[in-house]
Amino acid sequence: MSKRFVVIGGDAAGMSAASKARRTDPDLDIVVFERGRWVSYGACGLPYYVKGAVGEIEDLVAIRPEKFIEEREIDLRTRHEVTEIRPERKTVKVNGNGQEKEVGFDKLLVSVGASPVFPEVPGAELDRVFTLHGLDHGKKIRGFIEEKSPEKAAIVGGGYIGIEMAEALYEWGMDVSIIEGLPRLLTPFHPDVSDVVESHLSERVRVNLHEFVEGIERTGGERLEVSFGDARLESDMVIMAAGVRPNVGLAEEAGIDLGPTGAIATDEYGRTNLPDVFAAGDCAEVTNTVTGEADYVPLALTANRDGRAIGSTAGGDPTELAEIAGTAVLKAFELEVARTGLAVEGDAREAGFDPVSITINAPSRAGYYPDPKRIDVSLVADEESGLLIGGSLVGREGVSKRIDTLATALASSMTVSDLERLDLAYAPPFGPTWDPLLTAAKVLSGKLA
Amino acid sequence: MSKRFVVIGGDAAGMSAASKARRTDPDLDIVVFERGRWVSYGACGLPYYVKGAVGEIEDLVAIRPEKFIEEREIDLRTRHEVTEIRPERKTVKVNGNGQEKEVGFDKLLVSVGASPVFPEVPGAELDRVFTLHGLDHGKKIRGFIEEKSPEKAAIVGGGYIGIEMAEALYEWGMDVSIIEGLPRLLTPFHPDVSDVVESHLSERVRVNLHEFVEGIERTGGERLEVSFGDARLESDMVIMAAGVRPNVGLAEEAGIDLGPTGAIATDEYGRTNLPDVFAAGDCAEVTNTVTGEADYVPLALTANRDGRAIGSTAGGDPTELAEIAGTAVLKAFELEVARTGLAVEGDAREAGFDPVSITINAPSRAGYYPDPKRIDVSLVADEESGLLIGGSLVGREGVSKRIDTLATALASSMTVSDLERLDLAYAPPFGPTWDPLLTAAKVLSGKLA
Description:
2 copies of one chain form a homodimer. With about 450 residues, the first copy, chain A, is an alpha/beta fold. The first copy, chain A, has 12 helices and 25 strands. In chain A, helix 1 (about 10-25) runs parallel beside helix 8 (about 300-315). The radius of gyration of chain A is 23 Å and the shape is globular. The mean pLDDT of chain A is about 95.
């Protein structure tokens, strides 16, 4: 009898695992339970769907369910919710099609994702208060916009999603306000980079920092009124974009250990403390490239990659997970903004480093080449070892891929002086002779010496 | 009495060395002899000056001579030609201002650059046959175009300069023909990448491969006639862009050893075989990152960086030169084209590797994001060690910086499997979840396994 690999959750990590397990072991019995109706979708595309840059919500589905079922011979069950994991019996309890049943597994992957953090303020449950996490959320928001033509929007949270949604709603002609509790936007980025983003955003939307939403009320009409500090802001819609937290309830109840970040703890193969039970994606921890410690980085590539590695392992080819530098990029109106590693001195200090950082700016093209843009590069190093430990970049061009050079340097534990010596590409349309990264490394080297 | 550092040649390597030596040792006596009238200029900008995208030739001068003289206290002598190096006396003989004199040195840097290869064909000396190497060449070509409004141009050579000049002359509305002796364009790039460039160029200019120019004649009027194979091509101007060779005459006469590439051999500090005599820039060899062997890579960053390191050393702070991966990028009309390391299987085999290569294509943005462009990624690895040894990329966006990730991977001797595990940035406007580099690494891993 063939072995069975059961996957709970059919998005990035889960479907990557199922697909890779199939390629690794053609005889494996593979079952995926997904409680919703969508699988394998690009949640990162949701702001662009809301914006209208992506036509149909179905465009965000990377691979159709039939393909998994027919071509990859994966027993994919949507609208099936796993309500319990029974590790001692090696089964899961599943509700679907109005029935409850118990299904055995040889190996199990918990890839149940994360949920939006919903600030507990009065009025958060009102109709026109949205989150943006799954495809149905996206459809609901765009449907609302198309139907009601809202004029004013409030966005609670100044992180990736908050900023991408600000751009999306601004494109619809709305008067947009961002309300962020911390003193700056994009806190995992260096403050110098956050400042550039704030100043750019402020030309288009209202940015309220260090402000906590205290309540949301319905006005006389259909509008909402959002209170924070001394302000009362009228708004036709509110987007809650205050980050996500891992879905760990099901795992905890089964006796699966959580790690220091609050997500599911795993070893280098993605194994939990329970035998033959793995976890990956937005519900699980990863190992940070720079610190070597557990970290929580709910990003798409991590989920895809870790799912794929666990699929290999489940199929009989043990494969270690990759370490994660937390490399990320976002488009913020006209800006590209990117980060990797420990990009903020405070975070580096907390992780036990003695951080030194610099920020420089440089042109994105040779000075004489038409239309150069300004790039700001911020680097963080450890004073004692001279190791590069993180970086952030912002600019109108040439940012989204430059961060990958830093991520690669982090993966090989380069010192700032190693970075300074890299043979990077040069041509006048694409940068100055000394790439901004090299210039930043030179300046930081000077400060370390 | 203070020590004297003499520099022969006042462009990238020479002026970088002089400036860095000044910062390192404020008391050093620093003399630079430059035989021409220009110093510290961006030769890489010449095609864009010819194109008209850069207004004045002076815009290409990075730092004015007065600044070196007044602010940096460098005794810069333009129009001074060193005619002899006398190592036993530690002097150089110099002609300038109509006088010849002999100047002593404690340390000497030979940074005399390279000269264009001029194919020895009948008619190559004719008036309307140009090369593009120094600023005066650039002025002459643009002056000619502005005055004579040429309609047809022939470019001999399908490398970096040939292609950049094809774009420049096409912008002036000319009917442009490239004539390349080898069977493909851009021979240091993977053939799959050359093919993409050839097909793109062929939509705008005539590309003649595997053809050698046999002669250039004047027609009855002012036009030239270029013969190759069975063809006779009428042309108003001819650009010779057949590469460069290092200027080594002065060094050879002084007993300085050349290396296997024909350029000046140096050690890890840029020292030649003669005591206290250094060489850097387009006249000198470098050490290749991948092979660890001598290589000839006449590019701007190499010259700047090696000059700077030698300036440090001359100033009393011994600094090793960086190794060079031969990373390069160029704009070819709408395309970005880039390479690093041993990007061609044949070159890798010659260097003693057992190369395996793949080429994949992938979109430059998430599939659902508007207007994705195609990127072709070609990687070369060594079969036995699994080491990445080179790569080439081509596409309409997202190429110029992606190559730097590969260059960084080469600098840390990553395997293909290390590359596959990199935590690169992802957001829908900037790439698919699995970056094209990661996809290429996955495919190459599969071929290596």
